[in-house]
Amino acid sequence: MKRLRLIVLSLLMVAYGMPVSAVTEVTPDTFILPNAVAGETYNANIASTLQSTYHLRLESDARAAVFRWAMAGGEIPPGLMVRPNGAIVGVPRVARTEPYLFQVRVLDISLPRSEPLKLNCTILVSSPRVRLAHISMPRLVGDGADEAAGISASSQLTLKSITTENKPSQPEGEINQPEVARPVTRTNLSSNEVYASMLREKSEAKKASVPDDQPTCDSDHAPLPSGTGTTFSIDARDGNTSRDRQFERKEKVSVIIDNQNPYLYTYKFTSEKKVIEETAPSTFFSFLGGVVGDYAAGTAGDAAGKAKAQDLASGQIPTGPYRFLDTQAIRAVRIGAQNCGAYENTYKALISDVDAALDHSRTIAAGLKQLSADNKQRSDKYDTFIKTLHNGRATSGELYCASKSLTEVPDKGAAPAAIETAQDAITQLNTSAEAFKIRIDALQEAYPDCADMVVLNLVRHAADGLIGDAAKYDKGLKKIAADLKTMNDLEESVAATLRDPRKFRTIVELGNYPRTTEVSLGLTRTAIQPVDGKDAKAEELVKPDDTTLKFGHAPFFSISGGVVFSPLDKFEFDRIQGFERDRQGNLVLVDGKPNLTTVVGRKEGSSSRITPMILLNGRVHDKVGPIDGIHVSLGITAKNDNKGTDIEYLVGPSLSFLEDNLYFTFGGYAGRQQKLGGGLFEGFAVPATVSELPIEKNYRWNFGFALSYRIPVNKK
């Protein structure tokens, strides 16, 4: 009974085309990657391991896509990294008994809304040890495991079980090699057989596995020019610049013009230097008095060039040679024809050759379809990257990587040799058709009594149809050749751009000036593609008047205006109505009552002083962190009271900000305060004979600080 069940199960599996191993295959929750050894180079491809170990591959319904892998979480062995192509590379540093558990995700970047597939993986890192190992001989044919890391995706990525029947096992860590197609010997073949063999070779070459474990381009770490030391950035997409524009005189600054798109714009950068005179203290006194041209406009060819070639009739590839009627054959028909038996033989030979030519026509049609499909496959691959090249918001790294990927597309379109062979086949078809018409005329002339004019006219009509087909094929082949040239020109232009990374990011070195210098920067861009048939106008992204870098902190002396504050008391003495007091402040009584009379008192008073101030600032030190400069400042203000106007001062250090425009000054504030003289005191009864009080003014020191803004009195 057990044997019977096994037989039935085997029959069911054969009936449904399912291998025995597929019955027990279950997708695991965690995938074990090849073990690593601490201190030794490690290189494992996740997709290859899924196929060779678990018989799984990435599957989707999309026609073309690009898979990209990345870390999603967990703990990967220190020293290893996940590359975008699914390869885990590096040198693990730390060995341990428990495997490292981490999670990776794979995403189809050709579909913006695709959902990532996350996989749990483990790697065991062991300590180095001495061991015996088998010597494996080199293998010429791989198992195609790298195909799982190739291009095939949809919006929902899945893993599908695959069979490995009739495939040799692959030693762990061995790199797959694509199967090499054996060349076809074309000696003694007709042109039609040569053409057919070329089609077979191209079909077999497409089936060969192409490994995808080469490092991919990382847009965040593209090999673009980079500045040294201090940098000042200009974004060529919108003209945004760095905020810090104050530097030291001897400081070297790299101006980085980033995110340039050479496929959409041409750029022009300008810099104008101007030495700033370092003025003397007299400043204070003077104050008091932006190639790809047409090829970047779209993908290879127009929409018609992308579409399939004309819908030509398909057919099987014949193997027989063609027979042609030369002048001797025609003469033999004319001279040797004596009866209808000879006519029948000649007629049958003609019909056989016409049938062969019709097969030849169908072969050419199938070949042109294949050549057009080859072009379209290359053009479709280009479309993915050209979208980035036409994106005005793409970064320089993204533009570089898209350019690099475009030049590395493995599909090269229709083979030039195949185009040349197809042209020979079309010429041969046209020649054969013309020869058929000559042979029909010869038959009619040699056998007027035997010839069936209805049938011969049908044959003539077929010959005319072949001539028309040849003309149609020639037109289609020229379109295929033109599309191929367009794509080749596109690749060559992008490759030329790629050879000069400065077209994506330009570095201009400034600084190290002997004297204080201002550099005005400007950047314009001009669209390559004309607008409404007219040349595009230059667009000013960075205006020189708005973007000036200053090297040094001249002038040494500057003037600023602002407000000063000091807690120094402010008051005025005058005659007021009040109660008389003695020196101790006690009320003086007259008839037992306080004496209300004219006394000395404070007419106005305040516990602080806030007043406008002009400051002369002398620089003593240049930039320190966020501080643009340190200065010694002298501030002057005027205070008015009932005894006249007095000059008051603020002396102390100042800190400048906002490119030496905003000053914060603190120090000693010297202000005048009133003082009663002549022995007077507050509350003293002033006699009616005294017209003016004896009041003195003396300077008093207290703390003060000022906030001021530079006044542009120097010539720019």
Explain what this protein looks like in three dimensions:
- The chain is α+β, with helices and mostly antiparallel strands and 716 residues long.
- It has 4 domains: 26-129 and 139-161, Sandwich (Immunoglobulin-like), CATH 2.60.40; 228-290 and 505-551; 313-500, Glutathione S-transferase Yfyf (Class Pi), Chain A, domain 2 (Up-down Bundle); 557-710, no CATH class.
- The chain has 11 helices and 29 strands.
- The chain has helices spanning 2-15, 46-54, 191-207, 282-288, 293-296, 303-306, 327-336, 340-389, 396-407, 416-446, 453-498; strands at residues 30-32, 36-37, 42-45, 56-59, 67-74, 80-82, 87-90, 100-108, 117-123, 125-126, 158-161, 230-235, 246-247, 252-258, 265-275, 506-511, 517-527, 539-542, 548-551, 557-566, 570-579, 589-590, 593-594, 596-606, 609-621, 629-641, 644-657, 662-676, 695-710.
- The strands form 9 sheets. It has a 6-stranded antiparallel beta barrel.
- A hairpin with a 2-residue loop joins strand 22 and strand 23.
- The longest helix has 50 residues, at 340-389.
